[in-house]
Amino acid sequence: MNTYQRCLTKGSLYALAFWILASARLACAGEAEVAFDVPAGNLAESLQEVSRQAGVEILISIRIPETQSSLALEGEYSVDEAFRLLLGDSPWKAVAASGGSAFAIVEREEDLVADDEGEARVSNPEERKRGMDRFFRGLASTFSGKRGLWNAGGKAGSADDASVFLLSPFEVLADQDRGYEAVNTLSGTRLNSAVKDLGNTLSILTPQFWEDTAMTSVNEMILYTPGSERADTQRDRGNADLLFWGDTTIFRGIHTENIMRNQFRSNMPSDTYNAERFEFSRGPNAVLFGINRAPAGLVNRTTQDASLSNSGELKVRADDNGSWRYSANFNRMVLENRLGVRLAVLNDRHNSWIEQGYQDQDRYYLALNYKVNERLSLKVRYEDMEWERAAVDPTLAKDHVSAWVRAGRPAVDVSAEDDDVEFPEGVAGLSALNEYGYVNDGSGRMVNLRNFAAGDETLLLSGDIASVEEGMLPLELNHSGAFGSQVFDGDNFQFVAQYRVKPGLDLEYAANSEYMLYDFIAADESEVYVDANATLDDGVTPNPYFGDLFSLAEFNYRLKQDRYLRAHRLSASFSHDFGGSEDFSFLGRHKGALVLERNTDEFYWDVLRLINVTPPDGVEANDQDRTARVITYIDPLAKQFSGPVSALGFQDILNAVPGNDYQWLNGVVGGNSANRTEIDSLLFVWQGHLFDGRLIPTMGWRKDRIDQYDTAPLEVPRATAREQGYLYRPEVSGISPETANKGVVVEVIRDKGAFDYLSLFYNQADSFSASNFGRTPENRNNPPRLGETEDFGMRFGLGKGSLSGVFTVFEMQSKNELLESGLVTKTLLGDLFGMIGRHELNDIPAVNDTQDLVSEGWEFQLTANLLRGWRMMLAVDHFRTYDSNVAPNLRRLIADYGDQFIVDPDRIVPDQGTKTAGEIYEEMMNSLNLRLAQAGGFKNNERGNKATLLSTYEFRDGPLAGFSVGGSVVWRDKPSTGFPYREDAELGWVPDIENPFLGKELLNLNLHAAYKRRVFADRCDWKVQLNITNLGDEEPFAIRHSAAELNPRVPILQSMSKGNPQVVFLTNTLTF
Description:
Layout: H1 3-23, H2 28-32, E1 34-38, E2 41-42, H3 43-54, E3 57-60, E4 69-70, E5 73-77, H4 79-87, E6 92-97, E7 102-107, E8 112-114, E9 120-122, H5 125-140, E10 184-185, E11 193-194, E12 202-205, H6 207-213, H7 218-221, E13 228-230, H8 240-244, E14 249-251, E15 254-256, E16 259-261, E17 264-265, E18 275-282, H9 286-289, E19 297-303, E20 311-319, E21 324-335, E22 339-351, E23 358-371, E24 376-390, E25 398-400, H10 402-406, E26 427-428, E27 436-439, E28 446-448, E29 454-455, E30 484-502, E31 505-522, E32 527-530, E33 549-554, E34 558-577, E35 589-612, E36 629-635, E37 640-641, H11 650-655, E38 662-666, E39 673-689, E40 695-711, H12 721-724, E41 726-728, E42 738-752, E43 755-769, E44 785-798, E45 803-819, H13 826-835, E46 849-867, E47 870-884, H14 888-901, H15 917-933, E48 945-954, E49 963-972, E50 976-978, E51 981-984, E52 988-991, E53 997-998, E54 1002-1015, E55 1020-1029, E56 1037-1044, E57 1047-1057, E58 1063-1071
Parallel strand pairs: 3-7, 16-19, 25-32, 27-36
Antiparallel strand pairs: 1-5, 2-4, 6-7, 8-9, 10-11, 12-18, 13-14, 14-15, 16-17, 18-19, 20-21, 20-58, 21-22, 22-23, 23-24, 24-30, 26-29, 27-28, 30-31, 31-34, 32-33, 33-36, 34-35, 35-38, 35-39, 36-37, 39-40, 40-41, 40-42, 42-43, 43-44, 44-45, 45-46, 46-47, 47-48, 48-49, 49-54, 50-53, 51-52, 54-55, ...
Helix pairs in contact: 3-4
């Protein structure tokens, strides 16, 4: 979308917002100012008169005695308030359906009361069940084409006398959700299905969950789902997960970016401001959601559709880090019972507790819902977003200070003209070339990095560098400022048409079109140095920064991606009930879906460097380009820097130096990536309810045809990814993988004693992922990922819907999963290839390798509405992840090129200081051997046990009515953080994987309290809520340990999380 189109779209949204606000009469007033004049008399007739005067539909599916009278109703009230006053203390109540466009009069649900033993029970559960049955029948008439549809003891017309809009089997309404419990989903069969009838494992989070916890994204919510974790709690040091991903998720030990939007793949980061629910599905689900994602699991977020009602919400949130979040959500019925419009907007300014970190986003969401007639409905959804984030490092930096301190803080006296510099112990240069860097203090001073004396690294047996000691820098200060930046900018459009051919046969056409710009600037900022120069470059002037800490930013990596996702889907659903057949009634009910789908993914990735096109004399090339390297000094006590520290502003800072002309340009030898994947899919899913619903089998089958296009050869230096284009890849195209799943649920107990039901289930599914992130070291696509899982366990419900739970045992396999890049860096491997003249292998966007993973364990989750106003959610899990077939590509390359790398082992390798080819090769092999030795053992920092509990109690009566209190606790056990070492006669130092170092347990406590009341003459609901997260602070914790050769059994900190301090949120919400 170009700038003109973006401005036009935003202008239209602003105009629509103004219209909605005006029509709502300043939010609260419009919804309330319905003038009623209903005389006292027969209650059934009074209800009919309220329906007529309010212009809403009503279904009275109960018999109201003719003797039942009502008081007069005069004045201006909201519709629900009018019904509440009219019904008074009668045995009935009005229940709004589909956002308030219709109301069903049902019997009041009996509250849970205590019996003589103090146990919770339902008084008269059969009456409660009959009342809910009537409610669902009323729900079917929600979209009736006639006003005043009602039935009071047979006095008026029935639903058969009017055109009735029935709920499509391709959608789920959240009206049936209770507290933290969702009872229906599309994530099992692509059709509206009861969660208890499914064998696959999923967790559904409702709006009540994120309202109580004040959470806004998947990154926050995932901690409360079993078998799931945030990726940045397990990865090594640095800000990569925060920088390169919007949603960072790990399912059953495997990192994934599987975020869906209304069952379509999406690259747009999640948020709750326009969300209806979040569904976390664990294990391969290719049968349901396609083949182009990781097999570990996925998150499907459902956005809000427009409803045929008038409603709105205004919300303001602030925290004690100075963050502010404003959101508004308005819905209006434009054409009576036909057309609804929803507009939601978000302005979020989030400040990280780590200084220099922030996340700003602006979003706009528009939804239309048009009921053409009783058979056809049309929906449109559109969202536009702009997101900017400074991705600070949540870990402690690499240590280039302690070795200098241990060596006695030596001062080195060299000048820029010195050709051969020998640094004393504890000191090292910053570059092997005569490269020049800039001192970021406004002086424009340049220094020769080859002769620049800085503290040496503290090298560990793992091949990595030790972390700085806690306390060297304030935890709340990011040592490199905002050198890592992330920009998301894009939009998503969806269209849905649903048509009911006849009862039992429905059609749906759905389309998705999304564009997202990913723009990442990744400066090399994970290290902290100390300035050991006694003088400036002239060798005479005393160095004012001697002994000061600094960071070194290298702006030679900017990943700019244009991501396009387009999809068309045609679905047909069918259902049949044998219940009317005397001979075949045991076959019960059946439903299924047949789906045809085409997905087209198109990515253009440019790898840019900040290059000085008019460099000063004497500045040598760095990887064939003259890039910028910037020294920024740090004052830990004042928490200040010697100059600006924003990656987005560094180009202007560098160009302020006379003679400089820095530009973001593509590399000389390429490194870009242009990809297009076309997938045509056929899907069939069937579910049966046999033997009165006691046996529920589910089966799915999917076949896909894949056509793959990959990056064309680079013909013009510095060409963009679009200019370079892509070519058809016959070797990986035309393949037609088939995936399938099968499951069964057996209901063992039904309505017996305390049990509503107890079922046993089994589910098996597999998956195929056509693409894999990153490239192999020889610049090829990584191989497709293959997954398979088996889940079996038990589901149960207790207390007439008061409590439901599921226990799952699983085993999951995933082949060709990405291997963490820390195995062998691009620098090491690339420089070795460059040394032997294979420069085409020395500059690629991402070097990755693969591994096979097996994850096994169990999960338990429970949701409960135990008493009136009390809701609870509990989750416990245990799993372990094992790996095998580690780094097959690297091992093959070493076999092919290893001899060439060390033909001259004493040769100095460019860009590696004084390191020789033999030393670099040995370092690479040590890294590989270390990783291979860990195969099949403990996975670093995987916390195999987790328990979460969330509970809230609302006071409904008495002096505390309107108040609610609650809290949550999250416990995670000790992880393996690394290994001691032992000396092997052939391999040298190898990790002792049988005796890992262990980290510490994590315990997070969170509290929330709220007060809610009616305001503006009882026309609006106002709620103020206080949330305290990480009560008492989450202390820093180790992510990685290693050891040094001097004492290989003693742990040394390699990477450490800064933890998370306590944060206080205050939220004000006005609902009307």
